[in-house]
Amino acid sequence: MKIRSITYFCNPxxxxxxxxxxxxxxxxxxxxxxxxxAGYEVQTTRLATVPFVQILxxxxxxxxxxxxxxxxxxxxxxxxxxxxxxxxxxxxxxxxAVIPEAIAAAQNIFFSGVMADVQSGIxxxxxxACSEIITRCGPITPDxxxxxxxxxxxxxxxxxxxxxxxxxxxxxPAFSIxxxxxxxxxxxxxxxxxxxxxxxxxxxxxxxxxRELARVGDELGRRFSIPFGGIDFSLAPFPSEAVSIxxxxxxxxxxxxxxxxSLAAAAILTEVIERARFPxxxxxxxxxxxxxxxxxAKRAAEGTLTxxxxxLYSAVCGTGLDTLPLPGDTSADQIAALLLDLSALALRLxxxxxxxxMPIPGKKAGDPTNFNFDYFASSRVMALEAQALKPPLAETSxxxxxxxxxx
Length: 407
What we know:
single chain; 11 strands
């Protein structure tokens, strides 16, 4: 098990203050050393801010690319790998349109866009705006890689250390960690004779690591007077079979991930995370990022795992649709239909879901992906069965959806 990231959530007034960013960098360096001394490899240190609209003011969102460039320079000087400047917001619709240019301006800055929350409902203009961002980001590089740095958010609150969804909403700083722990699930079910045995083993391993991680986090928090926000224990994978959620499914008895039984496997693993005791933050669910997982990428390439399958699994597990390779000519209208479905699931089930979709220029469904990135597995472009929405859905401003009633 590794720590995917330590994320520092900074005060609203910090993003353009060089000395404050420097302080954050020093703290993150100390935190990295502390967790590594406890035996955990730390892949990256990161910084997340309040939504960029709040940093710039609603009348200055056109300055977002310059903000991204400035932040990129500051975090590099401070030894921080990445920063997230938070989401565009439905009450500032012009904040969505500036994101592609800002992503093109700085390769280590991430963004997101809010589509829905349980209080307000689904903003159809925001859904459409997120779809436009995805289609505009696709051609920024020939391989469509820029969309790695954007996520559409449905019912996602602040505080998750996983990018691109990370953002802050408090006046004081905080920090939290994200794990890369799919290997714990693979190991737990490799030799399990029953599902219950595998569940018990996985809970035990999560809690064992969480105790040590929380000990270090609490100690750092006391020493630097920065609250430790907790652990997002979402069993994130790495593109090898030993650290693959797809491999965990198949160790549980699913013949191939994507066949029936996969949804049950997703539900079982998610329920294990919910039962485990640890200081939780963010999603604390189950990631199914196709391109970051060796078995998911393989099953998607075979056609066994589809976009509809992944949307279905989002009903019982973690975080939505992540790193899906799509045809390069996928239209914003097609993407909007998919994002509307995701948003509806998030509100009816009252859970956080995201979409990180990656149309690849010049590619069609079935073509091989060709990313030159150590954290991506080889796969094939996935088909998207979607067409443009029609009225009244297409011409509605807001859709109110209350969470499902129980009992």
